Amino acid sequence: MPAQPIAAAGGVVWRQGEKSIELALVHRPRYGDWTLPKGKLMADECTLLAAVREVREELGAEVAVTRLIGTSSYDVSGVPKTVTYWAMRYLGGVFAPNSEVDEVTWLPPRKALKLLTYERDRKVLRQFARVPLAESVVVLVRHAKAGKRSEWQGDDDLRPLEATGQLQAQRLVGFLEVFRPEQVISANRTRCSQTVQPLAEHLGLPVRIDPAFDDETCLDDMDLTFTALVALMKPGTVSVVCSQGYTIPALIEVLAPDAEPATRKGAAWVLSVTDGTVVAADYYEDPTVN
User: Could you say which of 67, 199, 227, 249 would form a disulfide bridge with 272 (CB–CB 3.0 to 4.6 Å)?
Assistant: First the structure.
């Protein structure tokens, strides 16, 4: 039987230097190369979480994920390999040399391009450089599964998550926390607040209810909803907002007009913002897999 394709993930990790940003490169003694931190996915591991884990293992780094950069595909001994990369802001950590990585260096982008051993890695850095660094991040999450409205006898505002939705909410925690949110906001719907409550409890944050993100509000006054979202785009902030099936696509149509705005339940949009403008909008249809 032919060998299974290899799935891997990693990051372009950056920090602010004295004159410019600096990027982290790792040296692997086994291959004698300089490359980007990356590694293979473990069984049933989410690609994004694998990227963060590999960066932590190879750099000893804690990071805040911002945007998806893209993929690099090549063959390893005749077996196809695909590596997915994210941009990650360095928060701190301590590097410890090991058998896989014996040295880490931080370099400005131009010097990093020259030191990298492989052209495929240089291509990833060029992709990274094409988009401005995110000053803030807003993650829009559509509420998890809450059953059919027609089967709920009470006030629809109070319709709770079903069992599958509760599981989705729990599994969203690992995905959402890698962006390092500082505030958690919900539309004024039970199913929305329940979707992000596990995240808020995990982070020790309250869930702030904002009716501006209700579907009815967005339908009646889109400007009010848009203004509420823009208020979250202050430099240095990361926010998670849980809303509904009309509001999120309506906002995406305005903020990322080239994207397909349809958003399934439990899915998320990660908006990278610079100078008040969305410079990247990444859709995660199933955040526990992406």
Answer: 67
Higher per-residue pLDDT: 37 or 76: 37
Give how far Cα 200 sits from Cα of 74, 207, 266, Å: 40, 6, 16
Tell me the two tokens of residue 82.
């695909």
Average pLDDT over the chain, rounded to an integer? 94
C-alpha distance from residue 129 to each of 170, 182, 283 (Å) = 34, 26, 20
Q: Residues 167-189: pLDDT tens digits?
A: 999 999 999 999 999 999 999 99
Amino acid at 120: R
The whole-angstrom separation of Cα 115 and Cα 118 is 9
Confidence (pTM): 0.95
Q: Across-strand partners of 82?
A: 7, 73
Q: How far apart are CA 142 and CA 271, in angstroms?
A: 14
Q: Which two tokens stand for residue 195?
A: 């979707």
Could you count the other beta carbons within 10 Å of the beta carbon of residue 113?
15
pLDDT for the residue 201: 98
Report residue 287's pLDDT band, with 50, 70 and 90 as the boundaries: confident
Dig out the tokens for 63 from the structure: 């990071």
> For strand 6-16 and strand 21-28, is the pairing parallel, antiparallel, or unpaired?
antiparallel
136-284 falls under which CATH superfamily?
A: Phosphoglycerate mutase-like (3.40.50.1240)
Domain 6-129 has CATH 3.90.79.10: yes
